[in-house]
Recover the amino acids of this structure.
């Protein structure tokens, strides 16, 4: 069977793209998720597992000469001794902290008795507490609910500020041609070039003078600055996409300019504007640098994750924190996607 | 008697200095269906948009039903409009689209509902009232636009190339539909198009525009057969009239057209000079000669106006023959399926009454009466 060179070429390109997506997107995300569910013991294992595990295949051996018990975990085809102890609570603590397995003292005692009464090693199955890392994260990160709320508030304000100011600029950029209109739109982008730190350091002085330090609103102001420009550019292309004839039709059929804006232009732009608010949301949600400078007692969730687990040497807890941070942005994205999809007979503009 | 709609030396100059419309004077009677016809860029759409109030008027005035509406905002003009892109609002259902202008006119719910039902029935879109425009085909969207315009009972109905986004087959059916609507409602309508077939089919009167000026106003028959200017002769008709710059000579009471510049020694016998009273002052002068393809007939070679057929284009109902006259291609349209060979010698027979002559300088029609 022979293949035309063109076809071979396109197939190669397709496979390359597939491989790139797999190696740069899917595998890291999968690894990330797996690590976030891994116990300390698992996190140190090499090679790392691709999929999360729910239980351990283990053996419990009684050493008669020392009157101690040894826990062995299955590693490949052999069993590896991981813990030898005489004490029930010591064993229980090890399971909890290193293996993410919750065993009460009574349950451990029962296992010990069984192991004592068998000549050979007792095969046991240790069930993992799957969400242990997440629970630990929320225990470690004190005030995480409060931080979550702060993050949401900051994101909300950022969306509001950037949509109002950016939306108006976008409409002007799309509908009106005036002297220096190109300069205006380009200069908006210049604002985006400032690093967040460079903006927030001088701003923090003014924010303190205005008694807004350590509030979500102050954070939102800093987040909104680069976002206004982005929103303006996005919304201007949205408004350009709305045919002027639709507005003219409204005016011919009896609407004032304001009425046209409120009943035709704005509702038509609304879904796309909501979609563009995603950028504002993500900018606010993902930032920790600005929050580090601008807040003190009311950190955002991203900052809290950074503070709590940023110095951790084992990757499983930070991974759990990161997933916690990821979930709300995913939910937000899907809500918006579904909202836009079901609008106006499921057909995009 | 004051006419219903009057445009007084209407002029539009854009801020960049381009003058799109120069001095338009037009009077339209109540209930007329007027088509503004012209090539793209001739100012026809600008004229319509000035009528709608979507374009600022530079100079002149618009009087509708005795009221000066020149500088009124669109909503106060009591007009309706059908746009080229239909301009039905995609975020409203069909019913909401039709009801929107009525709501703005502060009608009560019951009246709006019955009005929507009424126009939806006329436009045959009763089944789609709850659908969104995105779920409709182009033709159905066009009907929604028509229904919306119908519902408002306006003083003036404007249509900006409403058929140009439809495919060819649909275009003719919507055309018939629009004509039917007009016959039933008798609404004063101004229809803008660049398609002469549309214009001729629909219009009570056609306004031919070119380069911001009105070339000619008249009925379809007048515009087609009595072209007032060279432009109209060139623009109207498919295929358009055969046009040649010739110099006229008189030879034994017969009028002969020669082309000075052409290398071919062709001369066209236009017939007895008595058929062109007052032609004397053009003898020896240059003049534009125009003859429509269907006004030329052929016969066996007779020694005059002899030429040979170069291309035959059968069209079923008629046949288009292409021949060289004065070195340029002339088209002849004959009824039926003509059996003719390429290269066959024929004589052209021209009805002197159908010949149109245009002044070489002014390019206006030379009248003999």
């Amino acid at each position: 069977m022979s293949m035309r060179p063109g076809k071979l070429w396109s197939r190669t390109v397709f496979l390359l793209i597939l491989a790139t997506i797999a190696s740069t997107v899917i595998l890291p995300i999968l690894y990330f998720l797996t690590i976030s569910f891994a116990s300390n013991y698992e996190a140190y294992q090499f090679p790392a597992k691709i999929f999360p595990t729910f239980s351990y295949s283990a053996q419990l051996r009684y050493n008669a000469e020392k009157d101690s018990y040894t826990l062995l975990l299955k590693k490949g085809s052999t069993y590896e001794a991981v813990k030898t102890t005489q004490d029930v609570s010591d064993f229980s603590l090890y399971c909890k902290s290193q293996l993410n397995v919750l065993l009460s003292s009574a349950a451990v005692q029962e296992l010990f008795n069984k192991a004592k009464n068998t000549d050979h090693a007792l095969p046991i199955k240790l069930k993992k507490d799957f969400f242990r890392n997440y629970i630990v994260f929320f225990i470690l990160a004190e005030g995480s609910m409060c931080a979550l709320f702060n993050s949401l508030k900051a994101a909300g304000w950022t969306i509001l500020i950037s949509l109002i100011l950016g939306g108006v600029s976008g409409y002007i950029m799309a509908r009106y041609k005036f002297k220096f209109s190109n300069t205006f739109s380009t200069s908006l982008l210049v604002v985006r070039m400032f690093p967040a730190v460079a903006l927030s350091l001088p701003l923090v002085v003014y924010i303190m003078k205005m008694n807004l330090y350590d509030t979500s609103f102050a954070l939102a102001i800093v987040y909104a600055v680069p976002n206004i420009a982005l929103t303006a550019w996005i919304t201007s292309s949205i408004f350009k996409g709305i045919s002027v004839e639709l507005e003219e039709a409204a005016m011919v059929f009896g609407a004032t300019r304001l009425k046209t804006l409120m009943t035709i232009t704005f509702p038509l732009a609304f879904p796309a504007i909501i979609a563009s608010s995603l950028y504002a949301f993500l900018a606010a949600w993902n930032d920790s640098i600005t929050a580090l400078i601008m807040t003190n007692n009311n950190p955002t969730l991203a900052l809290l994750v950074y503070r709590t687990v940023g110095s951790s040497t084992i990757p499983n807890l930070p991974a759990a924190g990161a997933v916690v941070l990821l979930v709300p942005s995913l939910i937000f994205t899907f809500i918006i996607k579904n909202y836009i999809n079901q609008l106006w007979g499921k057909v995009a503009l | 008697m004051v006419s219903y709609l009057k445009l007084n030396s209407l002029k539009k100059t854009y801020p960049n200095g381009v003058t799109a419309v120069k001095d338009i004077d037009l009077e339209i009677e109540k209930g007329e269906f007027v088509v503004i016809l012209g090539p793209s860029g001739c100012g026809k759409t600008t004229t319509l948009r000035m009528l709608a109030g979507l374009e600022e008027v530079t100079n002149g005035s618009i009087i509708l039903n005795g009221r000066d509406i020149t500088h009124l905002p669109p909503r106060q003009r009591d007009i309706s409009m059908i746009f080229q892109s239909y301009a039905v609002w995609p975020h409203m259902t069909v019913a909401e689209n039709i009801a929107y202008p009525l709501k703005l006119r502060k009608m009560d719910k019951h009246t709006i509902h019955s009005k929507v039902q009424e126009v939806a029935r006329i436009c045959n879109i009763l089944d789609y009232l709850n659908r969104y425009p995105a779920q409709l085909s182009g033709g159905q969207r066009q009907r929604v636009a028509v229904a919306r315009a119908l519902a408002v009972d306006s003083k003036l109905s404007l249509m900006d190339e409403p058929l140009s986004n439809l495919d060819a087959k649909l275009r003719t059916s919507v055309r018939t539909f629009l004509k039917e609507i007009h016959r039933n409602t008798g609404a004063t309508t101004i229809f803008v198009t660049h398609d002469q077939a549309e214009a001729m089919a629909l219009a009570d009167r056609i306004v031919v525009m070119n380069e911001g000026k009105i070339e000619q106003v008249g009925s379809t028959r007048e515009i087609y057969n009595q072209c007032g200017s060279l432009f109209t002769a060139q623009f109207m008709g498919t295929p358009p009239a055969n046009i040649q710059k010739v110099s006229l000579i008189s030879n034994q009471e017969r009028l002969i057209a020669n082309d000075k510049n052409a290398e071919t020694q062709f001369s066209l016998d236009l017939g007895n000079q008595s058929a062109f009273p007052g032609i004397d002052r053009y003898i020896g002068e240059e003049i534009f000669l125009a003859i429509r393809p269907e006004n030329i007939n052929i016969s066996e070679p007779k020694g005059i106006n002899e030429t040979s057929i170069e291309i035959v284009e059968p069209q079923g109902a008629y046949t288009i023959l292409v021949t060289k006259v004065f070195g340029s291609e002339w088209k002849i349209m004959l009824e039926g399926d003509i059996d003719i060979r390429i290269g066959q010698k024929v004589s052209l027979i021209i009805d002197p009454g159908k010949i149109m002559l245009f002044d070489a300088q002014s390019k206006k029609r030379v009248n003999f009466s």
